[in-house]
Amino acid sequence: MRRLPVDRIKVDRSFILDLEKDASARDIMRTIAVMCQNLGLQCIVEGVESHAQLQFLATAGCDGYQGYLFARPMPEKAIGGYLRNRNSCGRWHEAHARAVSTLI
Q: Where is the EAL domain positioned along the sequence (predicted)?
């Protein structure tokens, strides 16, 4: 992996489906996050659907998130309005910023 021209790893949602009830799933995800940190790669996680998942992933050291917790898929033209609305509602926070930044 060190020799590949990559700067981030995108983790499939299948790795986080059982985080809340399966200790081995949590161990695997922690290991992926640490591996990314040790290799100097960003760890972007797909499929985040709950605040519990988000909290665990943030604590594990993941760098970015995507999933229904933040927004449903939308057409490109709708993204600007989404960003303005999220910011003006006062509900914008760092996790949302990291989730959106992984889209760009």
A: 1-87
